[in-house]
UniProtKB/TrEMBL annotation:
Signal peptide interval: none
Gene3D superfamilies per the UniProt record, alphabetical: 3.40.50.2300, 6.10.250.690, Winged helix-like DNA-binding domain superfamily/Winged helix DNA-binding domain
Protein's GO biological process: regulation of DNA-templated transcription
Organism of this sequence: Mannheimia succiniciproducens (strain KCTC 0769BP / MBEL55E)
Protein name, UniProt field: OmpR protein
Length: 226
């Protein structure tokens, strides 16, 4: 099972379930920040550029439904997958009305959590067709394959994750801090020139102009047709 290198906010107070989800998602290539308390989780969404949230409803400090309502009131539109033991139709309807994007009742299979998160993230980035093309490069997040003019290009995990970030944000100039926040967990030590090294390697493999430097701002996708 492959997944995009995406950053997930997990808010779940059950140590066993939370740990199982964190370990499983991390193995599938997600980066996970896990909080066990409602009020902390509510604020955490502002601390990093998350791609999706896995939200338990019954939490100490603040109920998951109230967290969700507050985020949506504040126009925070990050996709939210609710996990809950409350499986009545009424609860599901309320969750969706408050702005949840998807709903899973406990007990659930980890594979289903992963598949649903991938679907939410693809929808968010408008990637219903999973193969992304830019210039002469094709990128398939499902098989984790990258090709240049039809020829497969092997990438390291970090290079792949970096390329994915650019391909998912084609029209944007990405600041250095945004890229580093996405690629590294809080507990990773990032050497100051690690990003330049990865970008240099991608240019070597995909074309010198493929990632352009936007001076004073960051990096953006360029072209490699010349």
């Amino acid at each position: 099972m492959s997944s995009m290198m995406m950053r997930i906010l997990l808010i779940e107070d059950d140590a066993l379930i939370g740990n199982g989800i964190k370990v499983g998602l991390t193995k599938s290539g997600f980066s996970v920040d896990w909080f066990t308390d409602g009020k902390t989780g509510l604020q955490a969404i502002k601390s990093a550029p998350y791609d999706a949230v896995v939200l338990d409803l019954t939490l100490p400090g603040m109920d998951g439904m109230d967290i969700l309502q507050q985020w949506r009131n504040e126009k925070i539109d990050t996709p939210v997958l609710i996990l809950t033991a409350r499986d009545t139709l009424n609860d599901r309807v309320t969750g969706l009305q408050r702005g949840a994007d998807d709903y899973l009742c406990k007990p659930f299979a980890l594979a289903e959590v992963i598949a649903r998160l991938q679907a939410l993230i693809r929808r968010r980035y408008g990637q219903a067709n999973p193969i992304v093309e830019h210039s002469l490069v094709k990128f398939d997040p499902n098989s984790r394959k990258v090709s240049l003019q039809g020829k497969d290009i092997p990438l390291t995990t970090r290079e792949y994750n970096l390329l994915e970030l650019f391909m998912m944000n084609k029209e944007r100039v990405l600041s250095r801090s945004f890229i580093e926040e996405k690629l590294y967990n809080w507990d990773d030590e990032v050497s100051s020139n690690a990003l330049e090294v990865h970008i240099h390697n991608l240019r070597q493999k995909l074309g010198k102009q493929f990632i352009r430097t936007v001076h004073g701002v960051g990096y953006a996708l360029g072209k490699n047709e010349e």
